[in-house]
Amino acid sequence: MRTRIITAVVAIIGITPFFWFSDVVEPTNPLNYLFPLLFMGISFVSVWEMLHCLGLDKNYVISIPLYLAALAFPLLARVMVESMQDYVRVVVLTSLAMAVYLFASIVFQFGRVDMGKIGLLFMTSFYIIGANSAVVVLRNTEKVGLYLVLIPFVFSWVTDSFAYFCGRAFGKHKLIEAVSPKKTVEGAIGGFIFCALTALLYGLIIGKFTDVTPNYLVLLLGGLLIGIVSQLGDLVMSAIKRERGVKDYGTMLPGHGGLLDRFDSSMAVTVLVLIINTYFPIFS
């Protein structure tokens, strides 16, 4: 526990400057690209962790295009901030091209690669790169970007923490023992409830100390969904680890494992928050 806390504190101190200088500024200003740089790094390492987990990191025909995509799309989200529709077109077309490319790799490496691994790799890489790019898209949102981009990290942390504490205090019934032996139904419910309460509290704080108006109904319903999706994101990544027979995705964060072990919940929440805010703005 001590190692986990020290790592968390050091990590928070390390990433704070990236969030502090995360505003969209003039394209000629280097600070404009500081925030995307952080998530380019997270995206790249996370893709490597998944490739390594699946035993495909040494297959450079497959890995190199994914590394390039992991670096490109978080950056393009800031470079193309004034033309998000064009950015979406690039994402969709590149994803389709990547699918065709991976199909070709299956054909030309037939018998040397596992088709199931390639399929899982495509899904998880698309998810990892998309989620880290979505963080930049959220931050790009005019006037309220900083308040939006904190939601995936704060809410997933609250959900995870209270699921742990409620599970320790009240847990009696295993949630999905084959995937995560220590998680309990009571812990999951606790994380779900406290996430919804945090969403309301977050809205009250933003509404009181800024000139932004929160949409409390969207925050409440969104908080309920986030409480579920956050835990689902954790369980999905745990299921892949179990299936592959590995304990952690990496060792970059002592006490936590790899970046995928730490950001599994927040990545899922980021996707959800982007979807919610696209159709039902959380702040106005």
Explained architecture:
It is built from 9 helices and no strands. With 284 residues, the chain is an all-alpha fold. The chain has helices at 2-20, 34-53, 60-79, 84-108, 115-140, 145-170, 185-209, 216-244, 259-279.
In short:
With about 280 residues, the protein is mainly alpha-helical. The chain is built from nine helices and no strands. The model has no long low-confidence stretch (mean pLDDT about 90).
The helix/strand class is mainly alpha
Name the overall outline: globular
Which blocks of ≥5 consecutive residues have pLDDT under 50?
none
Q: How many distinct helices? A: 9
Radius of gyration: 19 Å
Percentage of residues assigned to helices: over 70%
Taken in chain order, the helices and strands follow as HHHHHHHHH
Main β-sheet description: none
The count of strands amounts to 0
Strand percentage: under 5%
Mean pLDDT: 92
N- to C-terminal separation? 40 Å
SSE blueprint and pairings:
Elements: H1 2-20, H2 34-53, H3 60-79, H4 84-108, H5 115-140, H6 145-170, H7 185-209, H8 216-244, H9 259-279
Features:
single chain, 284 residues, globular
